[in-house]
Amino acid sequence: MPRPARTDPRVDLAITAACCVAAFLCLVFPATARNSAAAKLRGSLVAPLAALQEKAELSRRSFLGHDAAVQIADSVTLRSLRLVGVEEENERLRRLLGLASAVKWGFIPAEALQGRGLGDETTITLSAGKFAGVEPLSPVVVSEGLVGMVERVDNSLSLAIIWPHPDFRVSAMTADGVAFGIVRAHPGQGASRYLLELQGVPLRAQLKPGTLVVASGLGGVYPKGVPIGTILQEIKTPEGYARSYLVRPAVRLQDVTSVMIVRPARVRAGIENVWARAAAGDSAIKGVVAAGDSARRDSVRREASRRDSVRRDSVRKDSLKRDTLRRVP
Amino acid sequence: MSIAKSLWFALVLLLLVVLQYTLRPVLAWRAPIDFLTIALLLVAVRARPGVAAAAGFALGLLADSLTPDAFGAGALAMTVVGFGASWLKAAFFADNIALNGIFVFLGKWAFDLIFLVAERRLQGTDLLVQAVLWSPISAAATALMGLLVLLAVRPVLGAPRT
User: Rounded distance, CA B53 to CA A230, Å?
Assistant: First the structure.
């Protein structure tokens, strides 16, 4: 005999309908209401989970680093192949250190936690929040350039929109200050979805591919001089009064692991030329490394020539000895 | 369900939620395993549709709090999947590995499809590629993991109610 149902199916339907309506309301409510609800969850129930995620990502990086180190030690050939990745990582960290020393004050280092799930392509969670001094509308940068902007701040985490976000806008100019415009995410599909667009460039300003585009500092959110990307090509748009260009972003999002959140006070104080100085410092370091390499090459060359002269001396002495022996009757 | 079994069940659910925020970022796959969906389906096959829907709503909101631009999309998708899974469990939850796998696969794919539509971020080709390529791969990975979890918990928790 079938067991009688303990609950009326209509109750199930009512609960489900209530949940669906609540979820739908979450979707259509104004952004402020949704954000405050999400912030409450992030600050309470989800906080330990986000902390776990941060640890997991750090562990993954350590694991991958360890794996690479073991493989490097395995053989010289493999090491030379693997070193490319390690060198890139070193390069990034060195540039970030150079950038930090150039900025000197007014920034907060943070780890970028990328969920890699649906809905995570346009925002990142940062491992620093209100307690660390993060404020909304703070620009997020790396040594390569601009990543995005902090949108919401919780006690120990913050959320930033990154450049593919549809709301991302930066007042920009070319590095030589010839042309100004607005940079936003390129609304294309497929691979071009991961490009930017420089809009509103005056018709007289024709930009060549490869031209560096930086933040102009107008608007007060993004500091002047932060690299945004380089011009790829002009694109045709319906409006005929201005030019638009496709821009290759300076920052590859898959490489964004450690970032710097620049405080608004530091933005107001100006960090112009910091990226140029960081690049100069970096090239100076490369120069030192190259000088070390050439010194080592010189010493090897000297050692080789010394051995060569010793060998020639011994050959000469041998030949003299042979000649002397030949002369003896 | 006895108290001991209830505690075991809660522990398994907690473990799956923790795995979502630890193992998933460590693996960092393009088509990731969704441990929250597995947890929801475990609840759904043991609870009434209303309870499963409420559990889905709660899990969805938790996940949405880290992606505020899609806040509510995960909750809606999880609610529908929880309710549907609980409603269909009698048909699917026979002692058949293949049917259980299909159950988890369809649950995860349905979640992704509802999420993608509700979120309204991807459009055109990108939406199509995500919906018919990456989501099914993710669903297959989730189904494999779901089967492992089901096989692991069945001796402790017993067969689900139908």
Answer: 49
Give buried/exposed letters for A152-183 (b at 16+ CB in 10 A, else e): bbbebbbbbbbbbbeebbbbbbbeeeebbbbb
Chain B partners of A49 at a C-beta cutoff of 8 Å?
A: 17-18, 20-21, 62
Which letter does DSSP use for residue B130 in this model?
I
The more confident residue out of A240 and B24 is B24
Instruction: Report yes or no: A264 and A135 within 8 Å, Cβ to Cβ.
Output: yes
Q: Please report, for residues A15, A156, B121, B125, B159, the alpha-carbon distance to residue B70 in angstroms, rounded to integers and kept in the order given.
A: 22, 21, 8, 20, 35
Quote the percentage of chain A above a pLDDT of 90: 19
Is the CB of residue A245 less than 8 Å from the CB of residue A207?
yes
Query: B32 — contact with chain A (CB < 8 Å)?
Result: yes
Instruction: Search chain A and give the residue with CA nearest B54.
Output: A19
| pLDDT on residue B73 | 92
Q: Per DSSP, what are the bridge partners of residue A172?
A: A181, A215
> Residue A119 in contact with residue A239, Cβ under 8 Å?
no
pLDDT digits (tens, 9 = 90+) for B18-32: 999 888 888 888 889
Distances (CA, A) of B156 to A249, B8, B94, B143, B152: 53, 8, 17, 20, 8
Å from B49 to nearest chain A CA?
6
CA distances from residue A137 to A41, A110, A148, A159, A163 in whole angstroms, order as listed: 21, 16, 9, 10, 14
Of A220, A290, A180, A159, residue with least CA distance to B65? A159
Token code pair at residue A135: 């404020």
Check B25 against A63: CB less than 8 A apart: no
User: Choosing among B29, B69, B128, B133, which should be mutated to test the A contact, i.e. which has the most A CBs within 10 A?
Assistant: B69
Amino acid identity, position B64: D
Q: Which residues does B38 contact at the CB level (< 8 Å), separation at least 6?
A: B16, B104, B142, B145, B146, B149
| Average pLDDT of span A54-61 | 84
Q: Give the model's pLDDT for residue A136.
A: 92
**Is the separation of the CB atoms in A153 and A137 below 8 Å?**
no
Is B6:B69 a contact under the CB 8 Å cutoff? no
